[in-house]
């Protein structure tokens, strides 16, 4: 067979160094994140303001990605919106990680606690993700707080399962039993045996949750249950672009989505690379 | 066929028996938390015309003046009789709103389900068969990029290209505007479905592609596949012959288990395309503080996810007899 690779051959060496891969993806993701967060406050005064003279312009040198129906520069607005999305996403992903760690570790405190966490997991996974997000955002009355709480309360099950599994494995291991028998306190064991194993998992879990957090934040803002409409956010920009798209103003929608996608993509790859570092071989998605 | 199916069904029904009441209580608590005043949401811009007495009358008519526990008890009582209450935004029984809008959503979700299954499995097999070479890389890149794209952005881009730019397809709604339902031809309906279905099909395809690729690779590395390739079978022949049989069961299980996510995606797709389905109703219920309708939709989607998971379990056991023993 021409060009057919023997499936028994090992993969090319380029893909067999997971540590370097994770570093490379991590540098890209963090550089992108840093660039957005640092550049947004440097936007010149008035970059986000309405300019009646420059309404609905296609891309040109003065406005590299054009302007919207109110004459606002899309490039500047996208940058500000991305910064907002990233900040809310970091907060939400952090809160969700915290929920996951607390519930995952709580599940190891006996059978009753394990059952309670199991039931909570079933409930959280019982509704489609986005429907549950809408319900919680609605319950919080929408707004940025609503987004953070909604994301925090819906993205924890996967990480909490990992936490529970890891913690149980370590707690029942021989070296912990020996350590306890030597008179070490529970706190000492938690600090010296549990934490070194769990912290890398927690960081990887946070990185995995983050892209989902910003995508869902944008979705909620898009349908009007997320970030307040007067603030620049990707979801709000996209929902405004719905009205302009029919007039052929494609640039109003293209840039914000592309920006969000690039950040989500960078972190998705970073998270995936980290997971391959620690997880079992062959585990995808 | 042995007794695995009744045992599985019985187990799942018991789970539904505790999950449903718990979820109902949880949803009710959640929605009662909402700081949005439904009367204010209903009154909206007509504040000047509606005095405090009328507001009280509206609240009393909806039973909002009673304590939450009492409302929950009466809602449960009604639910037992198959009555989900009255939707505020649509001014019709919740049951009727859901029944009227479910078919439109199911048409989208059902078609997207079938299309993304075929597409995802074939792409996954093609990627696995060409592992490490350019078709594999292209397919994986597409899958991962789609997974990181907001679904509503994909929808808007499709509208910009195919509806506005090229003018091939309609950008909105399930039927041409201004036509009676009796005037709409099946061809028209189909044309209106193309963009929403395309959006829904591609947005959630990544897990399926990557999973199918992975299970094909596992098969290609197995002794059985090595034996076949020693006899001269090419990776492509292996992939779409025995490999397909190997991967299809796992793929179907995974796809059924994530069917609920398709409904989540259809909330956004229906918003972009103004599709008259349940997803759009969800958004209107949430922005209009329509608690009874939200509760109804919550329970309906819970059953939808539950059914998807149950079918996934059945598919897994049909595909792999070894699982039947442990059920």
UniProtKB/TrEMBL annotation, chain A:
Transmembrane segments: 25-43, 88-110, 130-154, 194-215, 248-267
Membrane topology summary: Multi-pass membrane protein
Keyword terms of this UniProt record: Cell membrane, Membrane, Transmembrane, Transmembrane helix, Transport
One annotated Gene Ontology cellular component of this protein: plasma membrane
Keyword rRNA-binding: no
A single GO BP: transmembrane transport
Signal peptide (residue range): none
Primary localization: membrane
CDD domains: TM_PBP2 (cd06261)
InterPro entries (UniProt xref): BP-dependent_transpt_permease, MetI-like, MetI-like_sf
Family matches, as SUPFAM superfamilies: MetI-like
Ranges in coiled-coil conformation: none
Domain ABC transmembrane type-1 as annotated: residue spans: 82-271
Compartment annotation: Cell membrane
Family in the record: Belongs to the binding-protein-dependent transport system permease family.
Protein's name according to its UniProt entry: Peptide ABC transporter permease
Organism: Roseivivax halodurans JCM 10272
UniProtKB/TrEMBL annotation, chain B:
Nuclease as UniProt keyword: no
Spans traversing the lipid bilayer: 104-129, 141-169, 189-210, 293-316
Keywords: Cell membrane, Membrane, Transmembrane, Transmembrane helix, Transport
Membrane topology label: Multi-pass membrane protein
Ranges of residues in domain ABC transmembrane type-1: 102-312
Main location per the UniProt record: membrane
CDD domains: TM_PBP2
Domain of life: Bacteria
Annotated localization: Cell membrane
Pfam families linked: BPD_transp_1
Entry keyword annotation includes Cell membrane: yes
Alphabetical list of InterPro entries matching this protein: MetI-like (IPR000515), MetI-like_sf (IPR035906)
CC annotations in GO: plasma membrane
Swiss-Prot/TrEMBL GO biological process terms: transmembrane transport
PANTHER family found in the cross-reference section: DIPEPTIDE TRANSPORT SYSTEM PERMEASE PROTEIN DPPB-RELATED, PEPTIDE ABC TRANSPORTER PERMEASE PROTEIN
Family of the protein in this entry: Belongs to the binding-protein-dependent transport system permease family.
Protein name: ABC transmembrane type-1 domain-containing protein
């Amino acid at each position: 067979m021409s060009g057919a690779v023997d499936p028994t051959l090992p993969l090319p060496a380029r893909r067999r160094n997971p540590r370097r891969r994770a570093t490379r993806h991590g540098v890209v993701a963090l550089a992108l994140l840093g660039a957005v967060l640092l550049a947004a406050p440097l936007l010149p005064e008035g970059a986000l303001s309405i300019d009646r003279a420059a309404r609905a312009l296609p891309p040109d040198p003065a406005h590299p990605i054009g302007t919207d129906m109110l004459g606002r520069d899309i490039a500047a607005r996208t940058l500000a919106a991305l910064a907002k999305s990233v900040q809310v996403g970091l907060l939400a992903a952090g809160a969700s990680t915290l929920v996951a760690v607390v519930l995952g570790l709580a599940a190891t405190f006996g059978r009753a606690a394990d059952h309670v966490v199991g039931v909570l997991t079933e409930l959280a996974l019982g509704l489609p993700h986005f429907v549950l997000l809408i319900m919680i955002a609605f319950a919080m009355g929408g707004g940025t707080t609503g987004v953070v709480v909604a994301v925090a309360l819906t993205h924890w099950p996967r990480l909490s399962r990992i936490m529970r599994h890891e913690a149980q494995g370590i707690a029942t291991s021989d070296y912990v039993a020996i350590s306890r028998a030597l008179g070490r306190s529970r706190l000492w064991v938690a600090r010296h045996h549990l934490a070194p194993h769990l912290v890398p998992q927690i960081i990887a879990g946070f990185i995995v949750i983050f892209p989902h957090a910003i995508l869902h934040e944008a979705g909620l803002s898009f349908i009007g249950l997320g970030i307040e409409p007067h603030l620049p956010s990707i979801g709000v920009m996209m929902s405004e672009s719905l009205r302009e798209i029919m007039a052929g103003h494609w640039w109003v929608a293209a840039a914000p989505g592309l920006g969000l996608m690039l950040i989500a993509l960078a972190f998705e790859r970073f998270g995936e690379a980290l997971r391959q570092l620690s997880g079992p071989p062959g585990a995808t998605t | 066929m042995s007794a695995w199916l009744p045992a599985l069904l019985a187990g799942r029904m018991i789970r539904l028996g505790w999950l449903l009441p718990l979820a109902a209580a949880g949803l009710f608590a959640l929605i009662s938390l909402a700081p949005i005043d439904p009367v204010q949401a209903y009154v909206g811009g007509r504040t000047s015309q509606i005095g405090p007495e009328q507001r009280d009358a509206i609240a009393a008519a909806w039973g909002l003046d009673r304590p939450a526990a009492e409302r929950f008890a009466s809602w449960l009582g009604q639910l037992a009789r198959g009555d989900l209450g009255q939707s505020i935004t649509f001014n019709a029984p919740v049951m009727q709103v859901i029944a009227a809008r479910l078919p439109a959503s199911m048409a989208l979700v059902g078609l997207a389900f079938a299309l993304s299954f075929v597409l995802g499995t074939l792409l996954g097999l093609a990627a696995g068969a060409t592992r490490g070479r350019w078709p594999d890389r292209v397919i994986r890149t597409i899958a991962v990029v789609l997974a990181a794209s907001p679904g509503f952005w994909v929808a808007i881009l499709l509208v910009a290209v195919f509806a506005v730019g090229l003018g091939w397809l309609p950008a909105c709604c399930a039927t041409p505007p201004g036509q009676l339902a009796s005037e709409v031809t099946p061809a028209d309906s189909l044309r209106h479905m193309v963009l929403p279905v395309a959006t829904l099909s591609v947005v959630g395809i990544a897990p399926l592609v990557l999973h199918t690729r992975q299970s094909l690779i596992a098969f290609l590395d197995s002794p059985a596949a090595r034996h076949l390739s020693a006899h001269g079978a090419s990776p492509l022949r292996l992939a779409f012959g025995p490999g397909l049989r190997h991967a299809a069961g796992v793929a179907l299980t995974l796809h059924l288990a994530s069917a609920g996510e398709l409904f989540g995606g259809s909330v956004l797709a229906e918003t972009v395309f103004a599709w008259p389905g349940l997803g759009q109703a969800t958004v209107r219920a949430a922005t209009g503080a329509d608690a009874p309708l939200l509760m109804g939709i919550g329970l309906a989607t819970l059953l939808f996810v539950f059914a998807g998971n149950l079918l996934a379990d059945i598919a897994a056991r049909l595909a792999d007899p070894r699982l039947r023993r442990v059920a």
